[in-house]
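Chain A, query sequence.
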Amino acid sequence: MNPVISEVMDRWVADPEFSNQLRDDLEGAVASLGLELKTEELAMLRQIDWQVNDTDLQARLNMDQSNPNGSYYGSW
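Chain A, predicted structure.
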């Protein structure tokens, strides 16, 4: 997995406040981590439906990570 995306996802899992920030302002939340995103990385994060509840989002994340084709965002 892309290290920048991984850092965002790790923070999302560990920090409920950051999770809420992602829902309200994706780019601002990522900027608050001090990360510089490439255009394609930002596009990947925009594909995620951050409005679903955290439990459902975690389930989708787990399903995609177990996909042998590595389609991390294919079902978002």
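The CA atoms of residues 12 and 19 lie 5 Å apart. The radius of gyration is 12 Å.
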